[in-house]
Each structure stands twice: as structure tokens, then as C-alpha cells.
Amino acid sequence: MKKKIRQDKIYQHIKKTGHVSVKQLAQLLKVSEMTIRRDLLDLEAIHDTEPQKTSQTKYDLLTALKKEHQKKFRIGEKAAALIEDHETIIIDTGSTTAKIIPYLDEDKQTTILTYNSHILSELLTNSQITLKFCGGDYHPETGMFESPESITFLKKHRATKYFASASGIHESLGVTCINSYETAIKQASIDSSLEFILMVDSSKFGVLSPAVFCELHQVDTIITDDDLSPKWIKRLEEQGITVHTV
Asked: Which parts pass through the membrane (predicted)?
């Protein structure tokens, strides 16, 4: 595995989990622990932060990543607060959309439709939730299942809210994601939902990823962190988009 690809995988894993052991990363990526340590030092230099070691084999989340991680939890908490009793919602694949789960109100009866393995597993023990799942071909890098049958399944359902992720938001070139296989299921979810809510941290604005799945004006609501610039907030509101900063 090339060094850049390996370090990207480490970076994404740390962003998702908040902390990780060197041993676990070495096993996951099939390299030596010394290689992982070198990669972590490279990542620290890139992000201009100092590591915090809690033991000989464990690194806490780099300071910059920890801040980003907490932003996502705040976004998830706000999203969960928008869910009303007896609503049907769709939750998209994504590290930010998954942060809804810890904040779901157990006193509310909710129907949740998803196509992500992580979200499904987290919700299986919640007796207050009615679960609907789209199957198909599994993509381990995102935890997403997709197939023509899952698109048909989505089109047969209706939701009050669709909580979606994105890796890029561009004023003229639309809302984008990294993988082309994500676009059809995202589009079907938008079409099947009364309200389309994007959950994205401020680093995604002005970014363009390879696969476009909608135009910016199609978005109803955006939940993001309070680092989003006033210029971007103004642009979004001028397009009729409700913006929540947390």
C-alpha cells in the first residue's frame, strides 16, 4: 500500500473513532507498528499539532481532529433535536450523519430508513425505533449498501426528513461526494423526502468532490458548525436555505 493512501486511511480512522492504538492500526493496515508511528508523526506535522500520548501504544486524537470530531457531535445533536414524534426519516452514510444516533429521543416513536451498516447496527437494540433497511452490494470503505433494488425500495417510501452527508459544497457546481456509487441512492432519498437536510462541517464549503448528487438550491436546511463564514451563510440564505450553526 502506498504511503499516501495508508496515511489517508489512518487520518479517516482517527477522525471517525477519536482515538486509536498503534497496534490496532498496524493490524488493520498490515504494516509494522514502527511504520504506523512514522505515519502518525507525518500526520502531526501536516496538521501542525502536538500528539498526546497516554501510553506506549496509544495516541489520543490529534488536536485538530479532536476539534473536528466534536463539531460533528454538535451537528448530530442539533439534527436529532429537529426530529418530531412519529416522523419517518432517512439517514445517509457518513461520519457526521451517524452522530444523530446518540441524541435520539427515546420518548419519541421514530421510523428510520437507512442503507448504512454502522447506523443499522447502532439502532438494532433501540426498541422505540422502527427500522427499514436497503440492502445490496456492500462498500466497506463507507459501510454503505446500494443496488437497483434499494433505489426501488426508497422510491416506494416517503420520509419527512432526509439527513444527508456531503464531502463538498460548491456555490455553482453543486453538492458532491467522493464515490459515484453514492449518487443514485442519495438522489432517490432526496426525491422521497419532504425536507432535505445536509449535515456538514464548515471545512466542506467551497470544496468540490468528483461525484455531484444535487444542486445547492435543492437543499432545504444545512446544519454546520459556527466556523462557517458570514459570506457563506449569506449565500445560502439568499438561496432560501435555512442555516443552523452550532
From this structure: none
| pLDDT tens digits, one per residue of 20-40 | 677 778 888 888 877 887 787
Residue 149 lies in domain? 67-245
240 residue type, one letter:
G
In this prediction, residues 10-14 reach a mean pLDDT of 78
Domain CATH for 7: 1.10.10.10
In this prediction the pTM is: 0.75
Tell whether 132 and 30 lie within a shared domain.
no
Q: Are residues 111 and 129 in the same domain?
A: yes
pLDDT in tens, 152-200: 999 999 999 999 999 999 999 999 999 999 999 999 999 999 999 999 9
Q: Residue 100 in contact with residue 91, Cβ under 8 Å?
A: yes
Q: How far apart are CA 190 and CA 74, in angstroms?
A: 23
Alpha helices in the chain (DSSP H): 3-17, 22-29, 33-47, 63-81, 117-123, 148-155, 183-191, 230-238
Q: How far apart are CA 158 and CA 234, in angstroms?
A: 31
